[in-house]
Amino acid sequence: MKNRKLRLVVRTVILIMIIAAVGYTLFQVLHSKDALAEGDTAPDFALKDLQGRTVHLKDLRGKGVMLNFWGSWCDPCKEEMPFINEAYKKKVDGVEVLAVNIRETKLVVQNFVDHNQLSFPVLLDTNGFVTDNYKVVPIPTTFLIDKNGKIVKILTRPMASVDEVLDNMKLIQP
Is 39 inside any structural domain? Predict the structure, then answer.
C-alpha cells in the first residue's frame, strides 16, 4: 500500500515537471516571435541612473548608443564589464554607453559599480519593464543603436575583449 502511494506521488511529480517544461518551452517560442530584431527602432524608455537622474533613450538621438543589459549575479556579465569600462574610457566620439541593471536594488548595483570601478552610466530597471520590453533573454545582451534610433546589431553573449567592444562602438559611430 505504501509503495503504491509513493509511486503515485512520484508519477504525479514527474507529470507536473513535464507539463511545466512543455509550458515553459511554448512560452519561450511564443515570446521569441515578438523579439526585437536588427533594423527595428529601439523602444524609448526612461530609467534612473545611480545618481537619481532620469535618462531617456530618445534624448540620445543623433548619437550611437551601446545599450547593455546585465546583472551583478551574472558571471559572463562580470567578465564583460572591465572590457566595456576600458572601451568607455577611450571615448569613441558620438557613442554613449548605457548599462541597464536588471531587477536589482540600488545598493547592490552601487556596490558592484564601486567594487569594479566602473565609469560608464548605469541605469536601474528595478521592476524589469524595460528588460521585458526589449525581450532580453539571455544576459548579457547588448543592443547597438545608431544615431537614428535603429538597432544595428544585437549581441546575446558577452564581449570578450576591449577591441571587440571598441569595434562594436565604431559600428554605431555617427
Answer: no
Let me know the angle formed at the C-alpha of 114 by 112 and 119, rounded to the nearest 5 degrees: 105
Give every CB contact of residue 62 below 8 A, 6+ residues apart in sequence: 94, 147, 174
Tens digits of residue pLDDT in 104-127? 999 999 999 999 999 999 999 999
Closest C-alpha to 92, from 4, 5, 14, 166: 166
Those residues whose C-beta lies under 8 Å from the C-beta of residue 174, and which sit 6 or more positions away, are: 62, 63, 64, 94, 146, 147
Q: Can you give the pLDDT at residue 2? A: 76
Name every residue whose Cβ is closer than 8 Å to that of residue 169 and which is 6 or more positions away in sequence.
64, 66, 87, 92, 95, 97, 144
CA–CA separation, 105 and 126 (whole Å): 7
For residue 119, report the phi and psi dihedrals to the nearest 5 degrees. Answer: -110, -5
* SS3 category, 116: helix
Coil, strand or helix at 48: strand
| Residue 70 located in a structural domain | yes
47, β-bridge pairs: 55
Whether 38 maps to a domain, the answer reads no
Ranges of the chain whose pLDDT falls below 70: 1, 26-33
Question: What integer pLDDT is reported at residue 17 of this predicted model?
Answer: 87
Domain span at 23: 1-33
